[in-house]
Input
Amino acid sequence: MQIRAAVLHEMGLPRPYAESKPLRVETLDLDPPGFGELLVEVRAAGLCHSDLSVINGDRPRPVPMALGHEAAGIVRETGRGVTDVVPGDHVVLVFVPSCGRCEPCATGRPALCEPGNAANIAGSLISGARRLRLNGGTIHHHLGVSAFADHAVVSRNSCVRVDPALPLEHAALFGCAVLTGVGSVTNTARIEAGSTVAVVGLGGVGLNAVLGALVAGARQIVAIDLLDDKLATAAELGATDTFNAGSADVVERIREATDGGVDCAIDFTGSERALELAYAVTHRGGTTVTGGLAHPDRHVSIQQQNLVVEERTLKGSYVGSCVPTRDIPRFTSLFRQGRLPVDRLLSRRVHGLDELNEAFDQLADGRVIRQVLTFN
Output
């Protein structure tokens, strides 16, 4: 079949993207689903910094590539070997397919699936196949999803069924922003009731971490960002303290407000300076977590002696250390109960593929929290 999709042909084009137009809307040939694959009609796709980091070259990937990785839609066709999903099912697409057989998968860490990671780097589905073509040439898949398109062929291992009563524009957020933000709190950091938490970087993922800290029962939630409007949003969602990271003596003021530092600080910026700030506001014996994706050439500097004598923990979080088949139903249940109001983070709807370049300018400027591309 033929589909319309947003394709990146060259990374690192200058901003504004409204002028350089790194994403071109193309008519692609989409092969039918192979063994263990599904054809999904995409109804909603979130715009995430992981897409932006491919566009600007911070996260190199093979091009040409059809972007988009946070999405939800409706199954329209199943390939051979798929028996537990049927046409008409609503699904959330997950950007790390898990094989279920490698050591990370077998030990409950599917976010680190080795074949899934290799396929994502190569720009293929987990089977190694590529189902997208343009004028006979191959188009790479983005993280096994390529959701900036009206339809996508994905591995069965890249989707989780959800209740069809869940609006798909909200369901899309659970494929990345919610998994990564809430999961970093509940799974990676394992925040306990009564803990103190700091969140550095208040985009869609960071604000989900604020919501996750509330669900976990944190008694003090410190929100840190460079933009005052995002600090105000964090306060509205339940953050107890807010600090502008650009203000003077910010580390000292945070440590004073938290009686020497927080139990856990979580960074989502992709900035080494922000990670160093998060580490600096973590108290003795505490944990610093980062889910931000920096350019591979960047390095962070910490005091090694401090790490040892204060028994600090510094750890990464990918996909919120989630098990999607477990955590997406858990998180959507919290949403339906009103305890995880992720719909409040949807700041703008993008009506159609032709608006994507302008929308990524807004994301790069930090003017929005979460934008969702919707299809009629």
